[in-house]
Specification:
One of its GO terms (cellular component) is external side of plasma membrane. The structure is a single chain. By secondary structure, the protein is α+β, with helices and mostly antiparallel strands. It has three helices and 16 strands. A hairpin with a 4-residue loop joins strand 15 and strand 16. The longest helix has 49 residues. The termini are far apart.
């Protein structure tokens, strides 16, 4: 009986002094990641340390006896979520692909040492597009997603194919092709399933309507082009007519006969002939225009 209690005591001691757990945390890129290091004991902690990817790669640490926090090889985006005394949770914001890895929380108190492992996985939602071409093939593409998205079609078809492109940053682009040459359905639906999102896209398969749409757009382009050309032509004709009219007016003025102007001669009084009214040259010695004007007026009244 005593041996049984001794074995149980040793097992309990090992469980208390070396507790290690593993937790997987998935966070979408650009969001906040919180890694909680639970204090399974009610005894206050003495030391807490966060490490990344290896047991010797220190990131954040706190010593209660010195009330000291240290940061080593740690981004400024990685901080304490709360106070390390009460809750030594680790906060990463915003999360990016470079933050992926294994994080270890180690803390010690009077009851022992405790280790908790966290596997941080960053999820990147893909960019989804659905297009088609003139060869009656639809392409549903989920670009740069992590992990790769799943693509399916409604209705299901044996004419679909798929390919993947892996990028250096760990993201994947997946493209699924759907041919509808011998299918009478009016439309097909592309279903994209991903850990960060689900998206549904629908595209019509009426190829005639596609051609009609393109023909209508071409006709509209032709109409607009013709209207613009018509406006330019009317403007040019109007300007030509204006200049032609002005040229005709100038030509008519140039060909018209010169106008004759008659000058009314000065009438001498009847009592004075041309020779009798000749004045001697010495009369201009004391020339005064006013006296001449008065003289002429007197002769006119007579």
């Amino acid at each position: 009986m005593a041996q049984k209690w001794a074995v149980l005591a040793v097992l309990l001691f090992l469980l208390i002094n070396l507790v290690e757990a593993h937790k997987r945390v998935s966070v979408e890129a650009g969001h906040e990641a919180v890694l909680s290091c639970p204090n399974i004991s009610k005894v206050p902690l003495l030391l807490v340390t966060w490490k990344r990817n290896c047991r010797s790669c220190y990131c954040l640490s706190y010593r209660r006896d010195q009330n000291e926090t240290r940061r080593l090889n740690c981004s400024e985006r990685i901080t304490w979520k709360y106070s390390p005394v009460s809750d030594p949770a680790l906060r990463i914001y915003p999360v990016n692909l470079g933050d992926e890895g294994i994080y270890t929380c180690e803390f010690a108190n009077s009851e022992g040492n405790f280790h908790f492992l966290f596997s941080l996985i960053v999820i990147v939602p893909p960019t989804v597009t659905l297009t088609h071409d003139e060869s009656r093939v639809a392409a549903c593409q989920a670009s740069a997603g992590k992990p790769a998205a799943d693509i399916s079609w409604i209705p299901a078809s044996n004419h679909s194919s798929e390919e993947e492109f892996h990028h250096p940053n760990g993201t994947v682009t997946r493209v699924s092709y759907f041919g509808w040459t011998n299918i009478s359905f009016p439309s097909v639906t592309c279903l994209v399933t991903h850990a960060a999102m689900n998206q549904t896209l629908v595209i019509g398969l009426n190829y005639t309507s596609v051609l009609q749409t393109r023909t209508t757009s071409h006709r509209l382009l032709y109409i607009l082009t013709g209207a613009a050309a018509g406006v330019v032509a009317v403007t040019g004709v109007t300007v030509c007519l204006i200049f032609r009219h002005r040229a005709c007016c100038l030509r008519k003025r140039a060909q018209a006969p010169a106008e004759h102007f008659t000058t009314r001669g000065w009438g001498f009084p009847p009592s004075c002939g041309r020779r009798a009214c000749d004045f001697p040259e010495d009369i201009y010695v004391n020339y005064n225009p006013r006296s001449i004007y008065v003289f002429l007026e007197e002769h006119r009244h007579k």
